[in-house]
Amino acid sequence: MRKPLFALLILVTVLGLCAQANESPRRTLLVEVRDIPADEQAGEGVFAYNDYNRKRIVSLVRNHAMILATPEEAAALRDQGFSAEVIMESDDELTLYRRALYGPTLKPDPVYHTYDQILARAAALQAAHPELIQRYPIGETTQFGRTIYAYRLSNDATVAQDRPAVLFNGCHHADEVLGAEIVLALMEKLVAGYGSDPQVTHWLDTLEIHLVPVVNVDGHHYVLSGHDPRWRKNARDVNGDGITGVFPEGVDVNRGYSFNWAMGGTSDPGGASFRGAHSFSEAENRAMRNLADMRQFVLSISYHSQGEVIFYPWTWNGMAAPDDKVIKRIATDVAGRIARMDGEGTYAIAPGGPSSQSYPWFYGRRGVIDMIIETGKGSHLFPPSDVPGILAENLKGTAAVLDNAAGPGLSVKVTDAGTGAPLSAEVWLPRIDNETVDRRHSDAQFGRARRLLDPGEYYLVVSREDYETVVLPGVSVAAEGWTELEVKLIRR
Ligand SMILES: [Zn+2]
To answer: Which helix (H) or strand (E) is 147 found in, with range?
Structure first.
């Protein structure tokens, strides 16, 4: 008699553990719900936007949701008066996600470009206008060794220009594919508009614009080959079993930068935000670092989805970034030009945390005003009919970014007083900069350091080993444009 009781106790315990480990019920239905009222998408509503978490609510775009449900949950929704139509039933969750996010064909809509299509389109633009656009490699992907390309655009793109440089990149996160589409659309607009569109012509005559359509090339391929519409991380075979592309493999390449790396994401390889074994463990991050080593940018945008918000650097233990005023002014300008999908107002801005992502590294280590733009709301792969609108609005955002690269700001050229050669030197503002940010440098090629600033008086220090330090206590930055200053350093 004792034995069966013992067995029963074990069974009860095991069932209890199962219930704990798997709290959500097994949802085998994909259910489409239409005409969801606004109040049900807010607060405690049945389709509260805050529940958009990829577990129950797969997408929530305007008043339309795709959700996973049990038969009981679907019936309960109908009892509550919602139109809850079962679209598909499957024991395979990935199949349900494919149907929800790719649509009836279970393949990505052609509105989204594969990496090969992006490369082919860019190659055609370069073949037609080699003076306006030049491709260059910045690295290879971690798992499959595919080349990650950047593009340089100006009115004379065949050589580096001593001009304010701006970077736009997409798809650190593989499923956030709108980033690649926005960067590609910007590329098309710039090349097509030079000589006919006065604004585009002015940008290409006065700036150098760099584009990286896809950072996470391997992950982007998983999404746009139809393999997995939810793929977020790169393709690294984390456990080394030779199998890739099966969750939870991969590393979150937007948690791999060496600025407070250990504070970001998770150390759990099974987590969606796994930060990797160490900072810059992933080739995608090293590619972006290579790019930052090649060129100093005054402004940089990383496209993500979703949320219709711009995250800027930063809030850190309640402290704002040293350049907070300028950063917030630019973020506000950019956000204010991008209309939300519901047509009610424009994108919001918010300070992001200071850890491991691209923007704190670009800002804190390299002095680049870098922001994340979270495009669209309620999905990553949006219905094809929504894509043109999101692209058009975000192109207005790119215009705001490029307009802000015109200044005001300080442009310092550092040379050797004896030889006239350009010098890489520390160029910093000790009354603004603090210990949270690295000192800025002029670049070795032109001896140039540019920094967007509000108009006013600044205390400037320029220093380099073996040279006399130059201290300029009252540098005046004009209200418009770049205030040019040449500093000649004397060798000790
Ligand atoms: Zn993202």
So the answer is: strand 147-153
